[in-house]
Structures are given as structure tokens and as C-alpha cells.
Design brief:
InterPro entries: Gp10_C (IPR053827)
Strand order of the largest sheet: 3-4-5-6-7-8
Helix content: under 10%
Protein name: Baseplate structural protein Gp10 C-terminal domain-containing protein
Number of helices: 3
Number of strands: 22
Organism: Aquimarina algiphila
Order of helices and strands: HHEEEEEEEEEEEEEHEEEEEEEEE
Largest sheet: 6 strands, mixed
Pfam families: Gp10_C
Strand content: 15-25%
Length: 361
């Protein structure tokens, strides 16, 4: 920075004893000092030093430049008011105070009115907004020990790092949680049970699915409108078998009637004659068929060899007796049993209690 001013030593030379300073020398003396009206700096009795910014209110107003050396062309740091977000756009200025570095980048900005603080940004949308320009670490908190361990850090690559315990006295919402004690193993039986390990949702699902695979059918005692998620009533839809009003019979590979998917059986059954047990019937014969038998008794004759017998009465032989009856009198009897039974079907089920069959989808 070029300074066209005389230093103190040069000015003192103008005012030696018996010397008469010229008008130009008096001008150099006056210009070497600060004027509270023209130079924008004032000190009113009882008030702190006041500095007036350079520039219009509608644009950036420069307040203070800090140099390591006046030999430098640009200041190391500058303080200004109402900085522009876009240096080429006059209407993009933000009301507030700003500290910028030698490159012109804003490093700290405090917005007027809201009081929002921006680090690396002129547009803080919260009480503290930090914007990094390819900087690995955006925010860090260091402990007070000699080791100066970083206990809290926010970085572009790692996100938020906390070394130590985190106490949250309220609700916490985490979109994608990753932790060393979260297990993604799908075989939970192989891991020791621990209160410090958390299985992932997929690990739990795979574990449950292998222990309770799709297609498993169980009995549900609750209301069918409250069937658990992932299960369906076995009513013939959603790929379930229709078990409405049915018993279940175990599979038998040797019996074609007991193959998977076969149905059979009846609620009631009517027996036919071949299915009835052996039994007797009671009944009465009809009274039709009255008749008599005749026996002949001739007084003489000899039918030797034909079954005739000699009859002797009081020592006198009177003749023979024919013991064969005549063929007259042949007949039949009709027979009617007493009628029993109502020809009705009978109950074909064991005692039952109704539950709903549900299937794992």
C-alpha cells in the first residue's frame, strides 16, 4: 500500500528553531494527521472511537483493513459492512458485519436483525451456519487435557464424530444408523447373546424367515381382523389353501388319499346296507294255511316191504296200519319284520373348537 505522508522525523525538520515552515510544509503536517470529519474517525468526549464506513449503504461498506506490512498490496484481513454474496451483483449484499481474508473470502459474518452467524458463508440460515470449501474438518471441540483430544468433530468425510458418551434427554431421530455393535449376521444363533449388540432389521427378518419359513400354517385364536402383518387367513386367496371349515390330515406318501393338496371327508354321512354291522330282526308270520293230516287203517291186505305194520287188538289180528301221510296240505308262510330306523345321516365329526388357520406369507 502506498502512503504519501511524511513521518514524524521529517515533519520535525520543518519546525526547528528560527525556521519558518512553508505553506507546503504546513500542508504535509496537516495531512499527516487524522481528521475526524474527513477521515471517518472520531473521538467524542465520553464515547469510544467511532469509525465511519466507506461506501454507499446499498453496497459493501469497507470499515477497517489490517496489514502485516504497509508494503503489501492487499490487507491480510478486512472488516466491512453489508458484504455482497456475488461481488458482481450490487443487490446481493447482506446486512451485517463481515470479516474477510486476503483472498476476499468471508470467514465470519454476523447478520443484522436475526443475529445468525455464518462461518465461511454470507447466507447463514440458522443461528450458526458453517460452510467449508473442501476443508476436511468443519467443526471440532477439544478437551482441556494435555493430550488435547478432539471429543467432537464434524467433517465432510466422516460426518459427526463423538469420542465419549452421548446423553440425549429427549427424542432422537436417525435416518441411517451405523454402529460397531450393530450386527448384520443372519444367523443369530452363532453369536453370543448380548445386551450390547443390536441385530439389523434384515438380520432379524432373515432369522425369523428361516425359523418360520413362508408357507407355515398355524392356528390363530384372535379376531381375524387382527391377523399379524405378514400372515394371511387360509381362505384360498393370497396363495393360501382354503381351509374354511376343514380339519387337517397328515401327509402320507403311501396313501394316495393323503397327498398334499387333496381334500375329502363329509360333515354327515348316511350308511348303506354293506356298511351296517351284522344284526338280527324280529317279526311275526301270518295265520294263513290251516290244514289237517289223514292216516289210513285198512282191515286186511298185505303190503310187506312197504312200511306196513300188523295191528293186533285183544289178541285178534285185524289188519295193517299205513304210517305215511298223504301228500295233500303243501303250503307256504309269509314273514314281515318290524320296521325300525329313520333313514337319516349321522354326525361324522369329533368334538371340535373353531380356530382360524393362518399362513406365513
Amino acid at each position: 500500500m502506498e502512503i504519501n505522508k511524511k513521518n514524524r522525523t521529517e515533519l520535525k525538520e520543518y519546525f526547528k528553531i528560527n525556521d519558518k515552515p512553508t505553506q507546503e510544509e504546513f500542508a504535509d503536517f496537516i495531512e499527516a494527521g487524522l481528521n475526524q470529519v474527513e477521515d471517518g474517525i472520531a473521538k467524542v468526549q465520553g464515547n469510544p472511537i467511532s469509525i465511519q464506513a466507506e461506501g454507499e449503504r446499498v453496497g459493501t461498506q469497507e470499515v477497517l483493513d489490517l496489514y502485516e506490512s504497509f508494503a503489501d498490496d492487499n490487507p491480510q484481513w478486512s472488516i466491512n459492512l453489508n458484504p455482497r454474496v456475488n461481488s458482481d451483483e450490487p443487490t446481493s449484499n447482506q446486512p451485517g458485519i463481515n470479516i474477510k481474508d486476503a483472498t476476499g473470502q468471508s470467514r465470519l459474518f454476523i447478520k443484522s436483525g436475526e443475529g445468525n452467524v455464518g462461518v465461511g458463508t454470507l447466507e447463514p440460515t440458522s443461528k450458526l451456519a458453517i460452510e467449508g470449501k473442501n476443508i476436511p474438518s468443519l467443526l471440532s471441540v477439544t478437551d482441556t487435557t494435555n493430550n488435547r483430544t478432539t471429543i467432537f468433530e464434524v467433517s465432510k468425510k466422516e460426518g459427526v464424530t463423538i469420542k465419549g458418551a452421548l446423553l440425549v434427554e429427549g427424542d432422537i431421530t436417525i435416518k441411517n444408523l451405523k454402529a460397531d455393535n450393530i450386527s448384520s449376521s443372519v444367523d443369530l444363533d452363532k453369536e453370543e447373546a448380548s445386551h450390547e449388540k443390536i441385530p439389523t432389521q434384515m438380520a432379524v427378518k432373515n432369522y425369523v424367515d428361516t425359523r418360520m419359513p413362508k408357507g407355515v400354517i398355524v392356528m390363530w385364536s384372535g379376531n381375524i381382523v387382527n391377523i399379524p402383518t405378514g400372515w394371511a387367513l387360509c381362505n384360498g386367496v393370497q396363495g393360501t389353501p382354503d381351509l374354511s371349515g376343514r380339519f387337517i390330515v397328515g401327509f402320507d406318501k403311501e396313501n394316495p388319499e393323503y397327498q398334499v393338496g387333496k381334500i375329502g371327508g363329509k360333515d354327515e354321512i348316511t350308511l348303506n346296507a354293506s356298511q351296517m354291522p351284522a344284526h338280527n330282526h324280529t317279526g311275526n308270520t301270518s295265520e294263513i294255511g290251516d290244514h289237517v293230516h289223514n292216516i289210513s287203517h285198512p282191515a286186511s291186505g298185505n303190503d310187506s316191504g312197504n312200511g306196513l305194520k300188523t295191528i293186533t287188538m285183544d289178541g285178534e289180528t285185524h289188519g295193517t296200519l299205513n304210517t305215511k301221510t298223504k301228500s295233500a296240505g303243501k303250503h307256504k308262510h309269509s314273514f314281515t319284520t318290524n320296521k325300525t330306523g329313520g333313514n337319516q345321516p349321522h354326525e361324522n365329526r369329533p368334538p371340535y373348537f373353531v380356530l382360524a388357520y393362518i399362513m406365513k406369507l
